[in-house]
Design a protein that fits this description.
seven-stranded mixed beta sheet; 320 residues
Length: 320
């Protein structure tokens, strides 16, 4: 899939747009805009108010005559919903699971972590220091659904399909059949390593299979450049590899973090794998831990601070 990976609004199909934020790393997510007759639908807002305001300003060329009436939040991570308050008057739609999970990590929590003294503050500023979480009033969904929901947008139909739990507890993809365009939220990371907070990985693999069966030309991922079905296949390959390798090590009695470090070394040592050069490879620690938790309900995952500490440790010291 070719196309410029530059900051800003890109028309990817007939009145279907992607808003891209290079380099797609932590917090730099993408969004989408579907414009109908006199009305628009926005897929996701951004991580803070400054970024969201800039995005909405760039979209005004389309939304001036077709105001945003609906916001769809693909999942509960803040980089896809913390800007909701700026889309005044819009209906906010998300899956029931997303609506519930959204309340668990309010912006004030990330603000406190970014402002914390000592090692914790340094750790979180390493990941999220670019963003301003103070002053955000989280605007939760005003409409929820389970499974599937079709939304009419000025004579067009946007199909919402719940595919979680996978990346989070309630992931949704948005399919616009008339422009053969798919907005995936964080069910796709392109050029960066997926992170499986919720799992199981089987669900995410099934979501890749479902997406591959749709009639699509352009895929707008949650992070990274535009892609197509080949990008979906590469993410599926990564998830299948991690599921297989982590399961083998679990069954052999290996500690989850030791397994993650060993798998990371294997990935980085084999350039023949399509995902060997992906950024944020430290996310393997979360992904392996999720496999362990899916296999064994008694497995105790570390808290979120330790999860980020482990990711940073793998990226800084991949040799072990």
């Amino acid at each position: 899939m070719s196309g410029e990976y530059t900051l800003g609004l890109h028309e990817v199909g007939d009145n279907s747009y992607a808003y891209l934020q290079p380099d797609g790393g932590w917090g730099y997510s993408n969004a989408g805009l579907i414009v109908g007759d006199g009305v628009s639908l926005l897929v996701d807002t951004l991580f803070d108010l400054r970024l969201t305001a800039s995005m909405l300003d760039s979209m005004s060329v389309a939304t001036r005559s077709a105001p945003i009436a609906t916001v769809v939040n693909t999942h509960a991570n803040g980089d896809h919903c913390y800007g909701n308050q700026l889309v005044t008057g819009a209906e906010i739609v998300a899956s029931s699971a997303t609506a519930h999970e959204m309340m668990e990590v309010p912006p004030s929590m990330l603000a406190a972590l970014n402002n914390a003294p000592g090692e914790i503050g340094e750790l979180f500023r390493h990941f999220f220091g670019d963003f301003e979480f103070n002053g955000i009033d989280l605007a939760p969904p005003t409409r929820t659904f389970d499974g599937r929901l079709d939304i009419e947008v000025g004579g067009r139909v946007v199909e919402l399909i719940e595919v979680g739990p996978a990346h989070t507890q309630g992931d949704t993809i948005a399919y616009v059949a008339d422009s053969k365009t798919l907005y995936t939220g964080d069910i796709l990371f392109i050029g960066g390593t997926p992170i499986v907070w919720a799992g199981p990985l089987d669900n995410w693999i099934a979501a890749c299979d479902l997406m591959s069966e749709l009639d699509i030309d352009v895929v707008v991922p949650g992070h990274g450049p535009l892609t197509d079905k080949a990008g979906i296949a590469r993410v599926r390959d990564y998830l299948s590899f991690v599921l297989s390798e982590a399961t083998l090590r679990h069954d052999a009695g290996m500690d989850a973090f030791d397994a993650a470090r060993e798998i990371a070394r294997d990935i980085l040592g084999d350039n023949s794998r399509s995902f060997a050069q992906w950024k944020e490879f430290g996310r393997i620690s979360v992904n392996v831990d999720t496999v362990y938790r899916s296999i064994d309900a008694t497995h105790k995952s570390p808290d979120v601070i330790e999860q980020f500490r482990r990711m940073a440790k793998i990226e800084l010291h991949p040799e072990g």
